[in-house]
Design goal:
- The structure holds two protein chains of two kinds.
- By secondary structure, chain A is an all-alpha fold.
- Chain A contains eleven helices and no strands.
- Chain A starts with about 25 loop residues before the first helix and ends with a helix.
- Chain B is an all-alpha fold.
- In chain B, about 80% of the residues lie in helices and about 0% in strands.
- Chain B has 13 helices and no strands.
- Chain B is globular.
- Chain B starts with a helix and ends with a helix.
- The chains are: A mainly alpha, B mainly alpha.
- Chains A and B meet through helix 4, helix 5, helix 8 and helix 10 of A and helix 1, helix 6, helix 7, helix 8 and helix 10 of B.
Chain lengths: ~300, ~300
């Protein structure tokens, strides 16, 4: 599985972003951000509203509607058990969003302090932390997730934990690079000269001015974790049936796809919309926070 | 710089070995119980624990496992009782061929497209390349695989839907059986590489020496390929090396989808059977491959950039 820039690169670990308010005008100028925000809005709307409108339909069996084609009461078709695919996709979105948001939150909770300590602590401690992160980064993401699943056994919560652990070194590296950059700024020196304590320096000055790259990275990671969740569930090591998951739907749909292609097309397109949404939001945020990059790359 | 890089690899290798070794120890339950099944008597379990060396202190177990690994002895499969080394000898070439095929495909397609997009920035080629790369990055490889099977196997009948013809039987059949899996793996990588190539080329095309070469009357092709691409190569090589990690992860899923008998298929089967020594070995091999590829990427810097070569 090939995933977008997971590694902290020069463009995500740039200098302190200029502070800016979010305005409608900014959205109008930033096509990536607008398009991505619309897609994510659609995903959220489907995920939240559809299961409320059709409660219980994601797992309700209707044998006489087995593999019903799209249209009528089955807007995007039904699976082999006659379960409505639209509500199953919506439930899959809920699981996907919960796993992505949970895993990214976990990575931020663990990664930000680790990165801050590596940047502002003693050089020896920083060096040791970075070498440990190097080891974790040497594991291909899917393999590291498989290792975590091997230890705890498959399941939705373990999936969240596994992806969160995979992301922690990435967040920590981006945080460290951004904090190092910020701590060289003159306003930090000025605060230090005024006699600010270590904690005040870190939390009042360094953290708020280093969050830009971390936020961009978090948005990119949201999209990537949708892919990781789908891949792990697809090979049977993630979400376990009967919980609806987009990856699981693809895996079981394979047996029926020659006669009823919608059983694989629906979850496939659903994943596409979600990941493109998060990727575009990440791109848009990067452009917004780092106008220098926009001037070169766009 | 190269020596330094080689030295930095050593702690990573040791750390990896420790983590991979710990996988088996952190797994809940006793390996001996897993081998013997639910009906084992305590005496049998004790005997198997002694046979496996599980009664010794953990650092001794680590030592003997590591010395085996260094000599190429990965222990025995819990299920088949075969030597894992011989299983790997059968499966590793298959995965290496699949990943290599996909990698070459991605580079051959993506780098020229990225260059074209950068040279004709803002034109229709640029627009198409950018749109396609966003989509190929966002769609998981197994979705491409499923769609490929649907279209090219079930509807058009051009390629087999699953299975693998060993290289030994027929090279043509072998490549034929690998086209769909390799293309599904390559698409995402190609999307990433096209984007990186485009943005690296744009950086370089705006530099003074490119403007100077143009002003000197050098042909457009010579400027792009002799000056710009060579200077844009380092970020492309770096990203390509890092993306090999995702390519290796992708082989796990794609081998599962197409029933290809490689290391990726083995690691999933082994996970589902709680066959932990095999999981351990597969993970170790994937990590070693990833480290090796990135080491090669670093060595390529020296070839691409004379400044780095002289410093070394």
């Amino acid at each position: 599985m090939t995933l977008p820039d997971l590694t902290p690169s020069a463009d995500t670990a740039g200098g302190p972003p200029p502070r800016r308010g979010i305005s409608l005008r900014m959205l109008a100028h930033n096509k990536s951000l607008t398009a991505g925000a619309i897609l994510i809005f659609v995903v959220l709307a489907v995920g939240i509203l559809i299961p409320l409108l059709k409660p219980g339909q994601a797992t309700a069996l209707h044998p006489n509607a087995s593999l019903a084609s799209p249209g009528g009461s089955y807007l995007i078709g039904a699976d082999q058990f006659g379960r409505d695919l639209l509500t199953r996709v919506a439930q899959g979105y809920r699981i996907s969003l919960a796993v992505s948001a949970g895993s990214v939150a976990l990575a931020l909770i663990l990664g930000i302090p680790i990165g801050l300590v590596a940047a502002t602590g003693s050089p020896l401690l920083g060096g040791i932390i970075m070498r440990l992160l190097d080891v974790l980064m040497a594991f291909p993401a899917l393999l590291l997730a498989i290792v975590v699943v091997a230890i705890f056994g498959p399941g939705t919560l373990v999936l969240l934990l596994a992806i969160g652990i995979v992301y922690t070194p990435i967040v920590a590296r981006v945080m460290r690079a951004a904090a190092l950059e910020t701590s060289r700024d003159s306003f930090v020196d000025a605060a230090r000269a005024r006699g600010a304590s270590y904690w005040r320096l870190v939390f009042r000055h360094i953290v708020p001015n280093s969050m830009g790259p971390v936020i961009v990275q978090a948005s990119i990671l949201m999209g990537v974790s949708v892919l990781l969740e789908a891949a792990l569930s697809f090979i049977g090591l993630g979400v376990q049936p009967p919980t609806p998951s987009l990856g699981l739907m693809l895996s079981t749909g394979r047996d029926f796809m020659s006669s009823s292609p919608w059983v694989v097309a629906d979850p496939g397109i659903a994943i596409l919309i979600m990941v493109v949404g998060f990727t575009l939001v990440g791109d848009g945020l990067r452009d917004w926070l780092d106008p220098r990059k926009r001037a070169i790359a766009r | 710089m190269i020596t330094r890089r080689l030295l930095l690899t050593i702690p990573i290798l040791v750390g990896t070995a420790v983590i991979v070794f710990l996988i088996l120890r952190l797994v809940p339950g006793d390996p001996a119980g897993a081998i013997l099944g639910a009906n084992a008597t305590p005496a049998q379990i004790r005997q198997v624990r002694i046979d496996l060396g599980l009664d010794r202190p953990i650092w001794q177990q680590f030592g003997s496992w590591l010395s085996g690994v260094v000599r190429g002895d990965f222990g025995h499969d819990y299920i088949t009782n075969q030597s894992i080394t011989s299983e790997m000898a059968d499966r590793l070439p298959v995965t290496a061929e699949l990943a290599g095929f996909a990698f070459v495909l991605a580079v051959v397609v993506a780098v020229p497209l990225g260059v074209m997009a950068a040279v004709r920035r803002g034109g229709w080629v640029d627009g198409i390349v950018q749109a396609i790369s966003v989509i190929t990055i966002a769609v998981p490889d197994f979705v491409f695989g499923i769609l490929g099977i649907l279209l090219f196997s079930l509807v058009l009948g051009m390629f087999p839907a699953s299975g693998f013809a060993p290289l030994g039987t027929s090279v043509a059949l072998n490549l034929h059986s690998l086209v769909l899996p390799a293309v599904s793996l390559a698409l995402g990588l190609a999307g990433v590489l096209a984007r990186v190539t485009r943005s690296a080329m744009l950086d370089v095309l705006h530099s003074d020496y490119v403007r100077f070469a143009r002003a000197n009357g050098m042909s457009a092709a010579a400027v792009v390929f002799k000056y710009a691409l060579r200077n844009a190569a380092i970020p492309i090589v770096t990203v390509a090396g890092l993306q090999v990690g995702y390519l290796l992860g992708g082989t796990v899923v794609v081998e599962q989808l197409f029933s290809i008998p490689g290391v990726g298929q083995l690691v999933v089967q082994a996970m589902l059977n709680r066959n932990y020594p095999v999981v351990q070995t597969c993970v170790l091999i994937f990590v070693l491959a990833f480290i090796l590829v990135n080491l090669i990427a670093d060595l390529l810097y020296a070839i691409l950039n004379p400044k780095i070569r002289k410093a070394a």
